[in-house]
Amino acid sequence: MPATRASPAADDGAAGPPLKWLQDRVSRRILTPSVGAGLGVAATFLGTAFCLGTSVAATPLVPSMGASSILLFVAPSSDYARPRAVLVGNLVSAAAGVIARELIPSTVLALAVAVTVSSLVMSLLRSTHPPSGGVAVSAALGGSEIARLGLWFVVAPVLLNTLFLLAIAAAWGLAARRLDLGYLHAVSSRTAVPAAGASGTQP
Q1: C-alpha angle with apex 29: 26 to 35, nearest 5 degrees?
Q2: Does 123 map to a domain?
C-alpha cells in the first residue's frame, strides 16, 4: 500500500510551533536588549549634549560606546560588562591614549603603546572591558579637537558618556526585569552552570 502524504493543511499546522518559538525568542531575548542598546547610545548622546550645552551636531560621542552598549544590554552578565570594568576601562584607556599621543611623535607607536598600556592596566585592575581599546585608539588617533582637550578628554566626553550609558543600562535592566521582558535570561543561564558543576552532576 503506497505511503500517504501529509496534507497541506497538516503542514500548515506543523509550522505553528516553530513560528511561535521564533516569535518568542525575537521578542523576548533578542529584540528587547537590541532595542535597549540602540536607545542607550542615543540617550547617552542626548544626555552628553545637555550636560555640555552643545548642539547635537557638536556633541562628542566616543564611537566605542556602541560596543559598550551592546555588551551592557545584550550580555549584562558578562564580566566585561561589569560597571566597574566599563568605567575603569574607559577612563584608563582614554588617559593612556591622550598621554601616548602627547609624548610619542610617531602615530603608529603611540597607537601601539596606548592599546598595550590600556590592556595591561585593565588586567592588573581586574577591570577588562574590550571596547575600551577603541577609546585608546580614538584618543591616540584623534584630530585637533582631542589635541586641544588634552586630558580633559577623559572627563568630557569619556566619563560623561560612560556614566550616562551605565545609568541607562541599569534603568533598562530594572524595567525589563519588572515587566518580565526576558532581558536578563543570560544571567540565569550563566549562574545555572556552576551550580550543576558544584553538585558533581555530569551533563
Answers
A1: 80
A2: yes
22-45 pLDDT, tens per residue? 666 666 677 888 889 999 999 999
Question: Could you tell me the three cell numbers for 14?
Answer: 506543523
Residues 109, 101: contact at Cβ < 8 Å? no
**Number of domains the chain is built from:** 1
139 Cβ contact partners less than 8 Å away, ≥ 6 residues apart: 93, 94, 96, 97, 98, 100, 101, 114, 146, 153
Q: What is the pLDDT of residue 98?
A: 96
Is position 187 within any domain? no
**What is the residue-averaged pLDDT of the chain?**
82
> Would you say 117 and 155 are in contact if contact means Cβ atoms under 8 Å apart?
no
pTM for this predicted structure: 0.75
